[in-house]
Amino acid sequence: MEHPRVFDEPDAALDRLRAVCLALPEAVEVLAWGRPTFRAGKKIFVTAGASMDRPHSLVFKPDPEERRALVQDARFFIPPYFGPAGWLALDFDSPRTDWVELAELVETSYRQVALKRQLVQLDRWRAPGALGGSK
C-alpha cells in the first residue's frame, strides 16, 4: 500500500525545514510514509508531518533531559507512532515560528542518532572560528 503524499511541492515552509536538515553533515532526505524524512546514515532524525491533519510539523528526537521541559510547553505535542519512543513534534508553518529554536531542535535530534564521524564533522564545523561555525 502506497501512502498518500503529505506535501504538495513547492512548499516554502518545507523548503526552509529541508535547508536546515540538509545542512548537517551527510544528512539525506528519504521519502517514507508519504512524508520527507531526514536521516544521518540510516537513522531518522527528523520527519516532516506528524499526521495528515498536521503536515507542517517537525517530528524530532529531543535530548532526554530537555524533553521534560519541552512537554510542559503547549507548542509541543506527542506525535503518533514516534511519540511512545520519546519523540516530540512542533508545528512550523506559523509566521511566529522561531527558526533558530527549530534549528537547535533539529541539531539536537541529529546528535541523538548520528554516527561518531558525523558528530566529529559537526563539531568541527561548529568550532569557534571554523568556516560556518558560530558557536
SSE blueprint:
Layout: H1 12-22, E1 27-32, E2 35-40, E3 43-48, E4 57-60, H2 64-70, E5 76-77, E6 88-91, H3 99-113, H4 116-126
Antiparallel strand pairs: 1-2, 2-3, 3-4, 4-6, 5-6
Tell me the strand order in the biggest sheet: 1-2-3-4-6-5
Instruction: Give the distance, in angstroms, between the N- and C-terminal Cα atoms.
Output: 45 Å
Q: Note the overall shape.
A: globular
Approximate helicity band: 25-40%
Q: What's the CATH class, please?
A: Alpha Beta
- Approximately how much beta-strand content do the residues carry? 15-25%
Total domain count: 1
| Strand segment tally | 6
Pfam family, one: YjbR
Keywords: DNA-binding
GO molecular function: DNA binding
Organism: Cryobacterium lactosi
Structural notes for this entry:
GO terms for molecular function: DNA binding. It holds the Pfam family YjbR. This protein is α+β, with helices and mostly antiparallel strands. It has one domain (12-126): Aspartate Aminotransferase, domain 1 (Alpha-Beta Complex), CATH 3.90.1150.30. It is 33% helix and 21% strand. The protein has 4 helices and 6 strands; from the N terminus they run αββββαββαα. The protein has a 6-stranded antiparallel beta sheet. β2 (35-40) and β3 (43-48) form a beta hairpin.
